[in-house]
Amino acid sequence: MNEKTCAACDYPLDHNAIEVTIGGRTVEVCCEECAQKLREAAAQA
């Protein structure tokens, strides 16, 4: 079975996963802190 993991920190995702759209692509993260990290990284790119 393939376990989904956070796009930012590779932590296993559960039912509380947050979807974030970065560069037109939707990814799932484990928490708001990881979501913010991805948003900041995308803004700097």
Descriptive report:
The protein has 45 residues and is of the alpha+beta class. It has one domain. Helices cover 29% and strands 22% of the residues. It is built from 1 helix and 2 strands. The protein has one helix at 32-44, and strands spanning 18-22, 25-29. Strands 1-2 form a two-stranded antiparallel sheet. A hairpin with a 2-residue loop joins β1 and β2 (25-29). It comes from Rhodanobacter sp. FW102-FHT14D07.
Summarize the structure.
With about 45 residues, the chain is an alpha+beta fold.
Largest sheet: 2 strands, antiparallel
* Helicity level: 25-40%
Shape: globular
Q: Per DSSP, what share of the residues sits in E-state strands of 2 or more residues?
A: 15-25%
Helical stretch tally: 1
The run of helices and strands is: EEH
Q: What distance separates the N and C termini?
A: 34 Å
Task: Write down the overall mean pLDDT.
Answer: 94
**Number of structural units classed as domains:** 1
Radius of gyration: 10 Å
Number of strands: 2
Q: In what order do the strands lie side by side in the largest sheet?
A: 1-2
| Low-pLDDT regions | none
Instruction: Give the class from helix and strand content and strand pairing.
Output: alpha+beta
Organism: Rhodanobacter sp. FW102-FHT14D07
Protein name: TRASH domain-containing protein
Keywords:
1 helix; single chain; TRASH domain-containing protein; 22% strand; alpha+beta; globular; two-stranded antiparallel sheet
Break the fold down into its secondary structure elements and pairings.
Blueprint: E1 18-22, E2 25-29, H1 32-44
Antiparallel strand pairs: 1-2
